[in-house]
Amino acid sequence: MPRTVPARVPFLLFLLFFLGLGLSVFAFVDLNWTHWLFVRQGVDHLIPGTTPAPVDSTQIEKLRQSILNVRIAQCNQNGENLGTGFVVKAGYVATAAHILGDEQSCNGKIRLIDSKGREHSASLEGLSTQDDLALLRISDTSLPALQLADSATYETPQEVLKLVTLGYPLEQAGASTSDSAAISGEGSLSRFDREHNVFVTSGLNLNPGNSGGPVFLRKNWLVLGIVRAKLSSEAGEGIGYIAPIKTFGSFFREKTGQELR
């Protein structure tokens, strides 16, 4: 004789079904609320696994027009010191002082190669070994200047700031002059070191040849500063130092009597 199913069993199954449905709806609402809380409030970087917005290739090509491969002949050896520079004002190029090496003592030739492979002869207009800054002058005033940030406002950042640099790392600098500036991986601003007047960064893929190049704020592509050095991997992984563009602005004024803006 078949067993009879107690009347309460279908009722319990009915309750379990609606309980499961209710939990699913709650989870969906909770996930969407969390997304609104973090993404809509401008802190999308707090969500694990998020990736930066794709780089606009048109924007990068425009920036490359202002970024040059710096090659400086040395006195006591054959060859050139290699680095990166960028146009800060028509006819003026910013770079790092240490790239020059012993150029000053022998008046070695300074060559700048632009994104189209054209060569520009440059003269040294100013040097600050303390801040590791150099100002070069070229006759071609058609190369566009990069847009500069007010770097002082980022000395005490109120948000996580993503950074990107464009330059000629060693493998690019040693290649043909038709090669264009390479974009680094995305890093972030760690802090401002007032004692040494540098921004400390983490995660930027800085290599020999990047020195003197621009470091951009990823959110608006304004130049925050100039690549100075990368800490050795033994001391810390992916830590870099950049000179604030505000410091270069003061240096530029001192050497030329002009304002960058």
Give an account of the 3D structure.
The chain is of the alpha+beta class and 261 residues long. It has 2 domains: 57-137, Beta Barrel (Thrombin, subunit H); 151-256, Trypsin-like serine proteases (Thrombin, subunit H, Beta Barrel). It contains 5 helices and 13 strands. It has helices at residues 8-40, 57-64, 103-106, 170-173, 245-256, and strands at 67-73, 80-89, 92-95, 110-113, 119-128, 133-137, 162-167, 182-183, 187-193, 198-202, 214-217, 223-230, 239-244. A hairpin with a 4-residue loop joins strand 5 (119-128) and strand 6 (133-137). The longest helix is centred in the N-terminal third of the chain and has 33 residues, at 8-40. The radius of gyration is 27 Å and the shape is globular.
Task: Provide a compact summary of the structure.
The chain has 261 residues and is α+β, with helices and mostly antiparallel strands. Helix content is 23%, strand content 30%. The protein has helices at 8-40, 57-64, 103-106, 170-173, 245-256, and strands spanning 67-73, 80-89, 92-95, 110-113, 119-128, 133-137, 162-167, 182-183, 187-193, 198-202, 214-217, 223-230, 239-244.
